[in-house]
């Protein structure tokens, strides 16, 4: 039976004795083959070390677009206001993120995958809030400077190797996938990385990119982009051509809306309304 997302928060008093150890998960078979490949870039010494759930999650392939949220930020209830109503298994998901173990209430094994999915959703929503803080924004600046999110696909922006930032079209889950925003042309595009496009746009939010460039104005290029000018045989197409084509299309649409000759002469949509 699903746990209510609006129930009281479970106590976070006991730190798990065994934290996320990559090597231990390989031995017990709890990690899939895909996850093993995700850890292929980690060295042997790193695999031997105990890591937090946040570190483990952010090191997975496809999650390099996230920054590591500070645990003290997550432990502040004020920063999590309203999230319990959006994420199922909220208390258990929060315990998993913070590596706390509630010995009083244990879910059946068959519900553990649901808690893991909820933990990923909850972390994404917390991430969208954290990157609006000074610490989170500084961490995103490092990723922006190293082109983690790619460059703008517009030809002029591509020529200056303009980096982009992730942006959401909605702050709600399951409304839109993540897009990228370019500060040079001020347009939004589908990301080149399919892994970034698989992430929910709510994990980055609608406000972050704009606040980022207000905070770091030096990241906005000073180069003024030149609008593309269509030409035919080297000559510019005069704007009157477009205006005439637009007027012709409007006239044809109005003529098509009128009835055939010999009838009332009223517009067809009025007749259909009668």
Question: Between the first and last Cα atoms, what is the distance in angstroms?
Answer: 55 Å
Average pLDDT metric = 82
How are helices and strands ordered from N to C?
A: EHHHEHHHHHHEEEHHEEHH
Q: Percent of residues in helical segments?
A: 40-55%
- What coarse outline follows from CA principal-axis ratios? elongated
Unreliable spans: 1-19, 21-36
Strand line-up across the major sheet = 3-4-5
What does this structure look like?
By secondary structure, the chain is mostly helical. The protein is 40% helix and 6% strand. The protein has 13 helices and 7 strands. It has helices at 22-28, 33-38, 44-48, 53-59, 71-74, 90-97, 112-130, 134-145, 155-159, 194-197, 208-215, 239-257, 268-273; strands spanning 20-21, 50-51, 165-167, 179-181, 188-189, 231-232, 235-236. The protein has a 3-stranded antiparallel sheet with strand order 3-4-5, with no helix packed on it. The protein has a two-stranded antiparallel ribbon with strand order 1-2. Strands 6-7 form a two-stranded antiparallel sheet. Helix 6 crosses helix 7. It starts with 19 loop residues before the first strand and ends with a helix.
Fold topology:
Blueprint: E1 20-21, H1 22-28, H2 33-38, H3 44-48, E2 50-51, H4 53-59, H5 71-74, H6 90-97, H7 112-130, H8 134-145, H9 155-159, E3 165-167, E4 179-181, E5 188-189, H10 194-197, H11 208-215, E6 231-232, E7 235-236, H12 239-257, H13 268-273
Antiparallel strand pairs: 1-2, 3-4, 4-5, 6-7
Helix pairs in contact: 6-7
